[in-house]
Write a structure and sequence with these properties.
Blueprint lengths: L2 H22 L11 H29 L2 H25 L3 H16 L8 H4 L9 H7 L7 E4 L3 E4 H13 L8 H18 L1 H10 L3 H17 L12
Antiparallel strand pairs: 1-2
């Protein structure tokens, strides 16, 4: 390991230890985040991994990959996800959306050359994005405590379980050829990280406390997703 990289990793380990020590002794103000000390420590770990390895790879990928290729990669993995979205829409009782999703997969897998081209959207079939955590939310399963995990990021307890189910049934993770599977997982993850690079500066400039900013934005976004963009108003306590 290069000395510079070793020093940076050591610094992040020290920072994490300090965060654990201070966070576990802090007073928790947000009832949705009762394990804030642990979560801030995991957030520090994730920030370290991202700074040292993940973000530089994503930046390199973003710099050298032509835009049409990046669009094609995103479309390819999006087409794979549409099949799981169709199942979750069906489980949520949204039969029309499920049929639309099936249509998208059939059209994009054939005319769209394996999903590289999003022909279905051009034909008026709206793209949806549903996963098992949203399905559980539709079924009335409560959020549960908030957690921040390394690599996968923020999740409620319900969404952590939903993520495990999503991963188990994810066609990419079920590829038998292990080197091919790992390559597909890595490319998808890097492509996803590269797609959110523009938001980094916005968050850094807008957030006094980056951890709280990401937590609150995530919880609000998830509530909006579960209620399909029309969440009920939260009653105010007087």
């Amino acid at each position: 390991m290069k000395p510079q990289l070793s020093r940076r990793l050591s610094a992040y380990v020290c920072a994490t230890a300090i965060t654990v020590a201070s966070g576990c002794a802090s007073t928790h103000n947000d009832p949705a985040d009762p394990f804030e000390g642990f979560n801030r420590a995991m957030f520090a770990v994730n920030e370290g991994l991202d700074t040292v390895a993940i973000k530089p790879v994503a930046q390199g990928y973003d710099a050298v990959t032509p835009l049409p290729v990046k669009v094609g990669v995103g479309n390819f993995f999006g087409n794979i996800w549409d099949s799981w979205t169709a199942i979750n829409n069906l489980l949520q009782g949204k039969g029309g959306d499920a049929l639309s999703d099936v249509g998208r997969v059939l059209i994009n897998s054939t005319i769209g050359i394996g999903g590289v081209f999003d022909v279905a959207s051009e034909m008026g079939l709206t793209k949806h994005s549903e996963e098992f955590g949203q399905t559980l939310g539709k079924w009335g399963v409560p959020d549960g405590p908030y957690f921040y995990w390394p690599i996968i990021g923020p999740r409620t307890t319900r969404d952590t379980f939903g993520w495990m189910v999503d991963t188990y049934y994810d066609p990419v993770w079920r590829v038998d050829n292990i080197p091919l599977r790992n390559s597909l997982v890595a490319v998808r993850y890097v492509d996803l990280r590269a797609s959110v690079l523009p938001t980094d500066k916005v968050i850094e400039e807008a957030a006094f406390d980056k951890y709280s900013y990401i937590r609150d934005a995530y919880l609000q976004h998830r509530r909006n997703e579960i209620f399909d963009g029309d969440p009920p108003r939260i009653p105010l306590d007087y």
